[in-house]
Amino acid sequence: MVTTVALVAMAALCAVGTAVSPQWVPPVALLVTVLLGVFVLRLAGMAVLSLAVVLALVVLHAGGWLVFVPGQVLFLALALGAGLVFVRGRARLGLQGAASDLMLVDLRDRLTAHGRIPDLPAGWQVDSLVRSAYAEAFSGDFVVASRSRRPDLLEIALVDVSGKGQQAGVRSLLLSGAFGGLLGAMPVEEFLPAANRYLLGQDWSEGFATALHLAVDLGTGDYRVSTAGHPPALHLHAGSGLIEIVDTSGGPALGVVEEPAFGVHHGVLGHGDTLMIYTDGLVEVPGGDVDLGIDRLMGEAERVVATRSGGADALLAGVGAAESDDRALILVRRT
Questions:
Q1: Structurally, what CATH architecture does the domain formed by 103-334 represent?
Q2: What's the predicted TM-score (pTM) here?
């Protein structure tokens, strides 16, 4: 309330300044109050300020201090309308003023924190990255990782939420918190079914997601990987130099059916081996075959990963995936 009154008073002072000395206080000064209102006011306060600006302009015109031309009226109306629409959209999210931007930054940082890989014992390395479409602030791809259930067991879930941009980013934030709570809190084989039940319970109109769940025994190198509508993992064998496609096909995406069956693959990471998991943004090309994208990724992995000449960043750059989709890549290496 106090802020609204202060900005209305500021608008009144601008109007007086325009009447007294238009060379120093032009009518556009009133729009400065509108801009400030967009940053700090709620919808009701913004509506009051917009009305005050309109009344000030009407008084200036009626008193002969201001002569409108059609272009001025049009742009003043657009500025006021845009300010109200922006504040209304922010109000629908329950956000207020400039502090809302800080909250969005905090939410983005929380999403990043959920994907932080826990400290690993000697002999293990994990290199992960997530890139959003067109470098937007939020990505529909996210990672959660845990060593909470057993210190010798590393669990990683890589999830690709339907859509992209802010809408997908909001769903990613919600799911990352929920999946992070599930990961490591239950037996390995129960994670994807539990994640599926949670997603079905959200009842979203576009509420599906693909996921890959990896569990690695850090003592023996034994691993278990299962997928839900997700591209297959790739296992680079250091001894032979061959790259194996880890077959876990058959599991549907999360949030589609109530009692899905998820295929499971058991393998062993030997010393020098690398397991690669990724989202479809890394291998999909509009109008192209995903298998060709996987072949391209495998070829680049032979050049970059097998020769130890680079990590996830170099592999992503070499694949040359389009920036029109979110991309995520994780390399789990046993040294």
A1: 4-Layer Sandwich (3.60)
A2: 0.74
